[in-house]
Prior knowledge:
Number of strands: 6
Strand order of the largest sheet: 2-1-3-4-5-6
Number of helices: 9
Largest sheet: 6 strands, mixed
Low-confidence stretches: none
Order of helices and strands: HHEHEHEHHHHHEEE
Bound molecules: zinc ion
Distance between the termini: 40 Å
Strand content: 15-25%
Shape: globular
Radius of gyration: 19 Å
Amino acid sequence: xxxxxxxxxxxxxxxxxxxxxxxxxxxxxxxxxxxxxxxxxxxxxxxxxxxxxxxxxxxxxxxxxxxxxxxxxxxxxxxxxxxxxxxxxxxxxxxxxxxxxxxxxxxxxxxxxxxxxxxxxxxxxxxxxxxxxxxxxxxxxxxxxxxxxxxxxxxxxxxxxxxxxxxxxxxxxxxxxxxxxxxxxxxxxxxxxxxxxxxxxxxxxxxxxxxxxxxxxx
Length: 218
Ligand SMILES: [Zn+2]
């Protein structure tokens, strides 16, 4: 079974090689010497939410961070703990000097459902529980503004609200990184919130002035 799945990867890579290596002026002739993506996308690890596939992007186009529920933790001292997400953001902003940071949330996010259905305080001993506590304020806001939960349909709707609300928490957390605020001021770095409704095949963009998500017309 494992072998079959690995074989699929190899067959897929054969096609990738043909497309990006085996032609005159192939893309990797250039990319072998470096990368200069203009956009950092922070997306969920969910197998249905692949930013490069969704954007029909080529190698070199997007710098991507994927984690459970596409969360950005607040800035903390680099001297304590290990901060994989913060390190990747730091490199994208100060090293690659990306022009945009997109936080992309999505419908039916398992991480958000775990946050909404369990008390994260009770689950702090798990990696997911501790990680999802980043979005606790999103949960609190959703329950305050849209709660309480009466049935499963309500919970599904509250999860949708929280999937969106947590994007705004991550956008705010991005601003706690000194190099992010510095890049916003000195060179106009854009922070963008996107919500992917995978049920409907639609994208929504967060409007910071109106404080709401609007459908992107395709
Ligand atoms: Zn997710």
